[in-house]
Amino acid sequence: MMRLLRTTYFLFLLFLLIPGNSHGQSARQSFLLEKNWRFFQGEVVHGESAALDDRAWKKVTVPHDWAIFGPFDRSHDLQDVAVTQNGEKKATVKTGRTGGLPYVGVGWYRTNFDIPQFDPVNKRVVLKFDGAMSEARVYVNGKEACF
To answer: What pTM was computed for the model?
Structure first.
């Protein structure tokens, strides 16, 4: 009985120590892309082009929120609504949802990065964006990757 327990314990430890890459895959690598971004607020003709010269754009680190720099204006926040929870029957002008942030508009973010020793035949790349604003479009090497 003791020998069976030792053998079971040994096999359990052995399986824990064996890497889970039975198909010859290398371990996953993650890279944070928070630094070395460029930002431009406004429309950019061919902004998706990999050849675009963005050296004059503002240098930023993401996460970045261009709206917090203003200008703050009550007109950015107006809504004509009746708040039924307050018993209102008639719509009136309200503000206060965004504090007057200028959240409407277009902004471009760009960065460049290389993946060391990338083998496109045997590996794949997954880009994960956390907190991109509404209607964000992502371009990779000048081609739209997602919307």
So the answer is: 0.63
